[in-house]
Design a protein that fits this description.
With 63 residues, this protein is mostly helical. It has helices at residues 2-20, 26-62.
Length: 63
């Protein structure tokens, strides 16, 4: 019985904490998503550029 009481207390604590959470609006979520996608594309492009440059350098040095 003690375990069941602990589980119920935990569940009610979780519900109480979730009510305190400040959830983003749809617009904030959309803006954040766009930022993440743009930054990911930029980092991917930079990584591709460095990889291409270093590949050409290494190929030129060892061929």
């Amino acid at each position: 019985m003690v375990m069941i009481k602990k589980i119920k207390n935990f569940a009610s604590d979780v519900v109480a904490e979730m009510k305190k959470v400040s959830w983003p609006t749809k617009e904030q979520l959309r803006e954040s998503t766009v930022v993440v996608i743009v930054v990911t594309i930029i980092i991917t492009a930079i990584t591709w550029l460095f990889d291409t440059v270093f590949t050409k350098i290494i190929t030129a040095l060892f061929s």
